[in-house]
Design a protein that fits this description.
The chain is α+β, with helices and mostly antiparallel strands. It is about 40% helix and about 25% strand. It has 3 helices and 8 strands, in the order ααββββββββα. The chain has a 6-stranded antiparallel sheet, covered by helices on one side. The protein is elongated, with a radius of gyration of 19 Å. About 10% of the residues have low confidence.
Length: about 150
């Protein structure tokens, strides 16, 4: 007996719900922490940014904010005007730059049927963010090892 497409989708949604429910940190708190982390490393707003290739990835952070990577270490925190329905749940987005440049208040992030006009663009010091996260993880690991050694 084969499972139809809707059956598979329902199973995947159920699995995602179970995994989310099993997490020790509620989804809203994780989303808020992720947004706060990017905001902490975001610079002052710029009116545009330029890149010469396709974007390297993106991640929704809130109903009107996303981070967009233009390469491995270059990221931008983009805030769009509301409403931008389904940004948090979009599987893909599209950007249509003008001569390889994205402008705030002019260009849009296309999410399904919505054109979400960009309000602000903030460069993120993503390399420093990753370095700080590595240091935090290493310090946590050393602390845990010291606790284990102290309790033995």
């Amino acid at each position: 007996m084969s499972c139809s497409r809707s059956c598979r989708v329902a199973c995947l949604l159920l699995a995602a719900a179970v995994l989310t429910a099993c997490s020790s940190i509620p989804l809203e708190q994780r989303d808020a922490a992720e947004l706060a982390r990017f905001e902490a490393y975001a610079g002052k707003p710029v009116d545009h940014f330029t890149w010469l290739t396709e974007y390297d990835g993106w991640e929704p952070l809130s109903p009107n904010q996303l981070v967009l990577w233009t390469d491995l270490n270059q990221a931008y925190l983009i805030t769009v005007f509301q409403p931008c329905t389904n940004l948090m749940f979009a599987r893909r987005i599209a950007l249509h730059p003008t001569a390889n440049t994205i402008y705030a208040h002019f260009d849009s992030v296309h999410v399904e049927r919505w054109n979400c006009v960009i309000d602000t663009i903030q460069p993120v010091d993503y390399r420093r963010m990753q370095d700080d996260l590595r240091r935090q993880h290493a310090a946590e690991k050393r602390r845990q090892q010291a606790q284990k050694a102290g309790s033995s």
